[in-house]
Amino acid sequence: MNKAFVxxxxxxxxxxxxxxxxxxPAGSKNYITPAGYQRIKDELLQLxxxxxxxxxxxxxxxxxxxxxxxxxxxxxxxRRLREIDRRIRFLTKxxxxxxxxxxxxxxxxxQVFFGATVTYCNQNDETRTITIVGIDELDPLxxxxxxxxxxxxxxxxxxxxxxxxxxxxxxxxxxxxxEVSYPEPAAD
Length: 188
What we know:
This protein is an alpha/beta fold and 188 residues long. The protein contains four helices and seven strands.
């Protein structure tokens, strides 16, 4: 098939990076916990040391088979290689801009800061437990919310027993902070 009819971008198109970069408020740092930074580092090393060399090997093998225009292994391999390279660039940029914050420095505190695990009760007497983490560590299904989320911003600097209000999507919501905890400092 003629390349003129195939919509593919070979350029430095970082749509994913551009979309996620908007999630960091202007002038703010990309806060991340040490564990979150390690996960990004591990993924980057996996891509560089294992995944990319394997795809390069497959593309090289597929290219040696001859006609590349109808060679599925070659076409898919090149596309996968571009995806891996895009992800490597994204992770590298995220690591370069990361500000690692160890939440264990607040161990024993009852005030909410980055990395806190907070148990709160809303006006409907529903209790939830969340952990405030970096944008790259976001996992709402497991109670990990970003520090830029409205509820996280409202909870920040509050203490156990405080009642705070914030603008939720469905209106103003009040939360009572029941418990604040942090991980224990690592033994050196």
